[in-house]
Amino acid sequence: MGAYILRRLLLMIPTIVGIMAISFAVAQFAPGGPVEQVISDLTGQNGGDRLSGGGGDLTAQQSFSEDSGSKYRGSQGLDPDFIAKLEKQFGFDKPPLERFGLMMWNYIRFDFGESFYSNTRVVDQIIDRLPISISLGVWILLFSYIISVPLGITKAVKDGSAFDVWTSGVIIVGYAVPSFLFAIMLIVVFAGGSFYSWFPQRGLVSDNFADLTLWGKIVDYAWHLTLPLLALSLSAFATTTLLTKNSFIEEIRKQYVVTARAKGLAERKVLYGHVFRNAMLIIIAGFPAAFISAFFTGSLMIEYIFSLDGLGRLGYNAIVKRDYPVVFATLFIFSLMGLVVGLISDLIYTWVDPRIDFDRRDV
Q1: Where are the beta strands (DSSP E) in 150-296?
Q2: d(C-alpha 6, C-alpha 11), whole Å
Q3: DSSP reduced 3-state for 77
Q4: What is the DSSP string of 290-320?
């Protein structure tokens, strides 16, 4: 197992480099980069507000030449020296390969640089938003597995019963409702929209959180998380529950289960002593995707609706603004998290089913 873990860790290096290289190459050809956005602002939209703190009044560098000969669209009428200053400010004065190599060298040391627009360190922005993403991601994963796995097992045992039919109906209807629509409905009904004001509309904690007692902080934290977690739980519950049910049904019909029952083993012993290990392998296999989804893609709309500044919202805003240091830093972190969680899933495989031995297979 030690050799397998070492191989997996070593394979993470070219995998991360490949992911970053492809994303970096795509960014080079994507229109509307940071330099072009600033040029667009200066030539008639926002007056260069995005350059606050970026080296003085750059609008004064404009000239009225007919054509600057720049490679950037919309740069006619701007001094070439001014364009060169913009490129240097955003780091585009170096060749792409040199910029990529420098970026990867910094990322290996977890030095993500500064944001193009906020003039703050990217790592500080990520750390500030981690509590919200961790709160949403960890709790929804826990609730999903703690509730959905036993429910899926029960549905498999009672396959075709009235309980199985009506719970499947509820789950399918819940899955069909988009999480953001359900979130809006929760706000309208329970957060002061039109009916009740039982829960807050935004934020992770109250303004007076620091003054509360320990128990008061716990209650306030749970109070703010209730509606976002309810909105996120629909699709997570449906996927995990139905996956667990189908996996258990497939295992229950196999010959070894019939043999175990013929030997007189209790049903609980058959389910959790024999079937559980084999049936849970497919659930564990889906854990990395569920983990990353809960931390980023699954919570993006919920973060916007409930005004929660998590990593999902940070990454999305960075993509819209072409804030490449933030974009690539969040991509690097999520890719690394996905690879690490994938390795942890493989280790859980061996714990659930000791018959699995990764040392005997090629990676």
Answers
A1: none
A2: 9
A3: coil
A4: HHHHHHTGGGHHHHHHTT---HHHHHHHHHH
